[in-house]
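tool_call predict_complex ligand=flavin-adenine dinucleotide
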Amino acid sequence: MKEDIIIVGAGIIGMSLALSLSSSNKKIVIIEKNLSNSLKINRVYSISKKTKSFYELLDVWKNIHEINNIDSMCIYYRNFNHKNMITFSEKINQTKIGYIVQSKNISLSLLNKIEEDDNIKLLDNYDIGGIENTEKGVKVEINNHENIEAKYLFSCEGSKSSIKKNLQEKNIYDDYNSKALVFNIEHTIKNNNAAHQIFLKTGPIAFLPTSNNKFSMVVSIKNKYLDDEIFQEENIAHFIEEITNKKFGEIKLTNKPISFDLIGFDSEKYVVGNVVFVGDSAHSVHPLAGMGLNLGVSDIIEIIDIVNSSNISFSRKNLFSRYARRQKIINIQARRQLKFIEKIYSIDNKFIESIVQKSMYTIQKSNFIKKKIVTHANNNLRFF
Ligand SMILES: Cc1cc2nc3c(=O)[nH]c(=O)nc-3n(C[C@H](O)[C@H](O)[C@H](O)COP(=O)(O)OP(=O)(O)OC[C@H]3O[C@@H](n4cnc5c(N)ncnc54)[C@H](O)[C@@H]3O)c2cc1C
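tool_result ok
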């Protein structure tokens, strides 16, 4: 079988990349190990303006169900108190704050479009074996007997890329020494579609509004606090009521918390021969700013820009070296920015705390700085 492009992994990034490449008239085969398992993972994502525009261009956004606008966002430090707060709102900062979408709804919208697309073949429940960079492209063995050849292979397998292992490529890691607990809550006092984030010394807690009386919660906990009673399943609703000063009334968990280790990394190489790493396969950041998927979308935008450049031949050697160079810098900067924020905000020291409070006070008074911050986040943390 010979195609232009092989994509390994039909997560949101793999499917989005396939549709983008198809609009550039490429023939694509996607190899996925288990789509129904992948669709069972239903996270709640904050989506930036840039990512929304990308999905509008792909004609996917309009078919995504249950999109919730974020009308405002409040960031607190240590407690829900006006003195330690920065607020962003669409009205005051004259720019959208973002959108809340369930990953399953993005995936289903992408999948529907892929099924109608003659340029894309999706092979589900397939295992990949050996991978070989050849003179003309790349060769992959699937299900132990068949070979597929293509000009390029994009690894979109998420953070546990088996292709990276197979090619003996490495990541540069940031260990946050933390776990994240993810769960949903219902509450009795309206949230007015405001996202909230509070930075505690135990780690940041994000409240993503999925409706006026529901939040999806991402509670990051430094490992040394993991056994604290407040974070146990039976106590956590009460703990959130307490830290929010009952701002949202009574709180009830609506599902069982899922826990996972928080690790940030960047692939040492983004391109190895004709194999290109994209999305979580290339990088992963702390979830405190809800940026992981948004950064993967920026990768795709850069790839498509290269593919569509009329002066670059698709079969040119080192076609994606510009992608590797640029996106690596951008994603490393993003990881460092988030690591810096996570570190500074979790330091338990009176002097640092007073500096953080003063800086937050300065930012809170300046609509100019706040507008810059929202614009930066909406540009997927890209400075240029
Ligand atoms: C707690 C938490 C909260 C988050 N919140 C946000 C947020 O608010 N906003 C945001 O933008 N991002 C967020 N993220 C990040 C986001 O989840 C990831 O960036 C995103 O899921 C990456 O998508 P992906 O397609 O690259 O990888 P994945 O979603 O991991 O998809 C990988 C796909 O590849 C398949 N696969 C894997 N290995 C193979 C193989 N060998 N062969 C074939 N198929 C394979 C898998 O089955 C899967 O379908 C969050 C992450 C976490 C952990």
